[in-house]
Amino acid sequence: MILVDSGAWYALSDPRDRGAVSAAAAWNRVRAGEYGRAVTTDYVLDETYTLLRMRLGTHAVRGFRDRLARSEHLRVVRVGEREFEEALDVMIGHDDKRWSLTDCTSFVLMRQLSIGSAFSFDRNFREAGFQLLPAD
Q: How far does CA 73 lie from the centroid of its chain?
């Protein structure tokens, strides 16, 4: 499995994004099953929908939601109360890092599900001990 982060979703949605070309190539590898099933979280989707809304408008949100609904390659995991509290502990316990709560929820769920890679442009995942796709 591989976790898909908001920066990757955004790059796949905006062809003008600086990561769009590498994101498209990476997504082809993910869709081909090279990393197993793609996983994302409700927190990552919240972040993605907000980013799309602010930068591209509601039409981009609608299009992204429709693409996700048709996807056969994606599992959406919900952050529960236990994962939320654990993520908050991770964030507080690493005051030397600038990790968002959303990233920390991803880290917690990745560890729970034994996911070692993230499709992300966020180096925080590497700092937390995960591999990045695309590699920087």
A: 14
